[in-house]
Amino acid sequence: MRIAQIAPLFEAVPPKLYGGTERVVHSLTEELVAMGHDVTLFASGDSVTSAKLAAMRPEALRLDPTVKDWVAHYMKMVEQVARRFDEFDVIHSHIDYFPLGLLSRQRVPFLTTLHGRLDLPEFNEIYGTYAQTPFVSISDHQRRPIPQLNWARTVLHGMPADRLRPLDVERGYFAFLGRVSPEKGLDRAIRIAAAAGVKLKVAAKVDNADKAYFENEIKPLLTTGHVEFIGEINDEQKPAFLSGAHALLFPIRWPEPFGLVMIEAMACGTPVIAFRDGSVPEVMEDGVTGFIVESEEQALEAVKKIATLDRARVRARFDERFTARRMAQDYVDLYQELIDAANAKAPRLRAVAGGN
């Protein structure tokens, strides 16, 4: 199968540090290649892949301070993909609504995985304009703001089974991993750890948009003595970081579309204490891979039970549910459905054209 993967340009594929969507695209692309498919990855030139790399610019947008209008780079990429439509059996986009106009006007089967939140009013308008094109959600909950779209399938994220592994290390803290922003709930994590009398290690990125929040709301909390702020970490650092934690704290306050850090923790055998919002009940199994809570008080009760969970079982559930091979096979099944539907439609269109 000849497959085009269209990746975001903000980070390399895979990202060098933080970057959820790009990390998923990398896992999917590599697994598709391992399965024997002919894959072309449209991404930044500093990406690393075993697929054919179609470099859309020299480096990721986040690393280039000269970029003033990132939309222009996306529109240029869409046009370059359009000029190569006939090279592919299926086109898989991960860049939201940017290519939908062109994709919907050509004959190659395509799909768009939506990786972000959909609860903003503008999204209902733009995606509703393309309501008949096939979309993939990364959790069932993600669909709720726009249930009327042509949802082809929900495909939960996965990652390579050997990317992160449990390490036999001493455990002595709680972990917070990801991004510092109001919706990620780092302030909650700091309070939970303080109330439990346990150290909190924070490995997180601070985006430019969240610097004021970090300075005003989070930085004063870092002086309490029980918090160690590490900053961004890479995949090589994650096994030790997560394996050394009693639990990952995931105290979100927004409709999380998926939450990749939950399965990263599970891959290391580390249970998760997560607030019930967004995708959490679809990813987490309460009492098996961690605990789902609805308040800081409930989180403290969960802390008392965390040692009762079997960390080997946490890892086993990752292997059963969240590997890159399972994710890739889900997508291949969908690709084939779209190709079969397009092939079945083509003779009818030719017959109609001939009749005219």
UniProtKB/TrEMBL annotation:
Residues 169-310 form the Glycosyl transferase family domain. It comes from Teichococcus aerophilus. Residues 18-125 form the Glycosyltransferase subfamily 4-like N-terminal domain. This is Glycosyltransferase family 4 protein. It holds the Pfam family Glyco_transf_4.
